[in-house]
Every structure is written in structure tokens, then in C-alpha cells.
Amino acid sequence: SSGINAEYGVCEGIFRKPGSRAVQRQIEAKLDNGETIDWIAEQMQAKCFLPNVASSLLKNYFRSLPEGLFPKVLFPDFERKLKEKLEKLRRKRREKLEKRLNEKQGRRLNERLENRLKEKRRKGQKERLQSERDSRGKERSKNVKRKQ
Fold first, then answer.
1. How far is it, in rounded angstroms, from Cα 105 to Cα 102?
2. Do residues 56 and 22 touch, judged by C-beta distance below 8 A?
3. Rounded CA separation 76/73 (Å)
4. With the CA atoms of 11, 17, 20 and 21 taken in that order, what torsion angle do they form, in degrees rounded to the nearest 10?
5. Considering the entire predicted model, what is its pTM?
6. 3-state secondary structure of 16
7. Rounded to an integer, what distance in angstroms lies between the CA atom of residue 116 and that of residue 137?
8. CB 22 within 8 Å of CB 50
9. Do 31 and 37 touch, CB atoms closer than 8 A?
10. What is the pLDDT along the chain (148 residues), one digit of tens a residue?
């Protein structure tokens, strides 16, 4: 995951790296008192990287919810929808794969058929040439017998 940093644009590991616990406690106290947080001023005062503090505060808040972010009552519906989505994705992938395989097999079959046709044409041409040679040879032998 990455977060936004005004100075550098992006920071790495915003939800993996915990923020300063001392700064978290200070900001939690302000939030509990109903104060609005000026994150830029806090950043200047704390001299630590506040996106990690903010993400840690957010994670702690989600953990503190009595029923969590997704209530347990909704889990069966959520799980069913997720399974439907996954099955739909699998079906689309399978269809796409089958289509690609069919196209590939179709191309191979066409290539085989074309090769067989070419081979038959070559074979037919060879047979015609051979029969022409044979007929010329027979004519020559007839001509030779007549001359004798």
C-alpha cells in the first residue's frame, strides 16, 4: 500500500508501518476532546511521518468497533455475493481460455488440412507427371516398334 506525502508524493507501507505511539496518544486525546486535527501543524510539531500515525489511528478505530466494520449479521450475504462474483469471474476466465484454446485448435486444424491438401496436390501433380511420362514412353516404344 502507499500513501500521500506532500513533500515526496508517495510513501511506502502506510498500513504496514505503525506510527509513533506517543503522537497517536496525543492525537487520540485531541479527538476525544472533540478538537479538529490540523495534520500539517501536527506534522510540523511532531517531527514524525503522520500518514503512518493516521493509518494506525484508523486501524485502531476499526478494531475498537463493537461489531467490526462489517456486522456479523451481514456476513452470510457478503459471503454469498463474494462467491457469486468469484464464480462469475471464474466462468469468464474459463470461457476466455476455452475460446483461445478453440481458436488455437482451429488454427492447428486448418493448418493440418491445408498441409494435407497441399500434399495431395503435390502427389496428384507427381502422378500426372508420371502418367504423362509413362504415356510418352509407351508412344516412343510404339514408334520404335513401327520403325523396326
1. 5
2. no
3. 7
4. 150
5. 0.42
6. coil
7. 31
8. no
9. yes
10. 444 555 545 556 666 777 888 888 988 999 899 999 888 887 777 776 678 888 888 888 888 888 877 788 888 998 999 999 999 999 999 898 888 888 888 888 888 888 888 888 888 888 888 888 777 777 767 666 666 6
pLDDT of residue 87: 93
Buried b (16+ CB within 10 A) or exposed e, 108-138: eeeeeeeeeeeeeeeeeeeeeeeeeeeeeee
Angle between helices 21-32 and 50-64 (to 10 degrees): 60
- Which cell numbers in the block locate residue 76? 452470510
- C-alpha grid cell, residue 145: 516398334
Q: Over the Cα atoms of the chain, what is R_g?
A: 40
Query: How far is 88 from 80, CA to CA, in rounded Å?
Result: 12
What is the β-pairing status of strands 2-5 and 9-12?
antiparallel
The residue to which cell 456476513 is assigned: 75
Q: What are phi and psi of 23, to 5 degrees?
A: -70, -35
Comparing CA positions, the residue from 51, 65, 63 lying closest to residue 18 is 51
